[in-house]
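Entry 14. Ran structure prediction on the chain below.
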Amino acid sequence: MKINERFLELKDSYLFAKVGQKTSEYKLKHPEKKVIRLSIGDVTRPLAPCVIKAMQKAVSDMSKKETFKGYGPDRFCYGYDALIDSIKGSYLKKGVKLESEEVFISDGAKSDLGNILDLFSEENTVLVPDPVYPVYVDTNVMGGRKIVYADATEKNGFLPMPDKKVKADIIYICSPNNPTGAAYTREQLKAWVEYALKENAVILYDAAYEYFIEDSALARSIFEVEGARECAIEFCSFSKTAGFTGVRCGYTIVPKELIRGGASLSRLWARRQSTKFNGVSYISQMGAAAVFTEEGEREIRENIAYYKKNAGTVARCLDKLNIFYTGGKNSPYLWLKCPRGMDSWEFFDYLLENANVVGTPGSGFGKNGDGFFRLTAFGDADETVEACERIERLLK
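Output, structure tokens:
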């Protein structure tokens, strides 16, 4: 018996686990200190009332023989009509028309971003930005693929563009980006689509934070770009859009036009899912179906506005301190340059010990993240204000 030795090539600790461990150790040593976490991107606002109402009805359905639900719909997308139709309606508002068979319901974007690699050969070359969400890298290390990096730096606003000298088969794009908060315009995404079509590559487009976009020049879906249906798969989640981090529901869009190796990737994904996945719970799906209703849109935007206000609080703090950062306006993340020439983990320790505020070291997202630091807007509003006051006193 042999193990998959590629797992041994992974870093010893997942970034957020290490942040959590260091935070817990500090709190054990200093129980009298109030530590404020602006690190892990978990939501703090409760679910929207219409979502709770829909989920309560779904629970009631499960208590009656006439409306009880077991396994999900007997079709490859594993989605109930109410949810599939609501997702299609949300895309129509962005000017994108989808067919029901192109919408696959999942338990969140993170799992599908890793699982989609089942469709691709280990011989493929993968292009990821640096800094990058660790899942993109780790899942490909596990699969033994060659990884090349697109440098995202202060010079290019942390938005790398295609390099004609680089050949890639799979391309990861996250916009608005985690961790940098930077977001591509439609014209910039058009360049990536043209590159992918020329290389016969597939773009894996992570749109988990698209509901934070307020600038009309920025795309909320890569399918707003002509040609994207022939080269892109889009991953979305209700986690940040509607606070479903503890509920679990997302969706992946695989267009019918996406053909590689003479095979439909939509059909391959359907076949993969029917083998390895049994769908998302009826209760979660009914709650998700309420999100894109008129009432749901209004209620979830109230929560998103709450987080955007937090982002504005952090941005004003950084502006006062004259610290360079990206994000904060069209994203819940702020990516700042560590002050006084500190490296990422040095600043993490300095901030924790002297201001009792926790962020995420940029070096955990790649070599270009060293010297940078991520703060999130997903915390409590009063605590965010207090954290910024502490940071300002410390760094003034």
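The chain has twelve helices and 15 strands. Will compare against last week's run tomorrow.
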